[in-house]
Design a protein that fits this description.
Layout: H1 2-18, E1 21-29, E2 32-39, H2 47-62, E3 68-71
Parallel strand pairs: 2-3
Antiparallel strand pairs: 1-2
Length: 74
C-alpha cells in the first residue's frame, strides 16, 4: 500500500511543482497519511485546501482507506 501511495504522490507532484512547491511522503500509519509540503507550498495560505480538497481526494480515489492527511513540519 505504501508504494501505491508514493506513486500517487509522485503523479500529483507535478501540479505542485508548477507553483514552485513540492510534496514529500513521510509515512502512512493507522489510515493517516503524513506528508511534508515544501517550497512555495510550505507556507501557502491555501495549504489546508490543497491537502484536503486536492491531494487527499485524489489519493482516496485509489486508496479509500486513507482517512486523513497531515502536513508534518520538520
Amino acid at each position: 500500500m505504501v508504494e501505491k501511495i508514493k506513486e500517487l504522490i509522485d503523479d500529483l507532484r507535478i501540479y505542485l511543482n508548477i507553483d514552485g512547491g513540492d510534496i514529500e511522503f513521510i509515512k502512512y500509519e493507522d489510515n493517516i497519511l503524513y506528508v511534508k509540503l515544501t517550497g512555495n507550498c510550505a507556507h501557502c495560505m491555501l495549504q489546508d485546501q490543497t491537502l484536503n480538497e486536492n491531494i487527499l481526494q485524489a489519493i482516496k480515489e485509489e486508496v479509500p482507506e486513507i482517512k486523513e492527511i497531515i502536513n508534518v513540519e520538520l
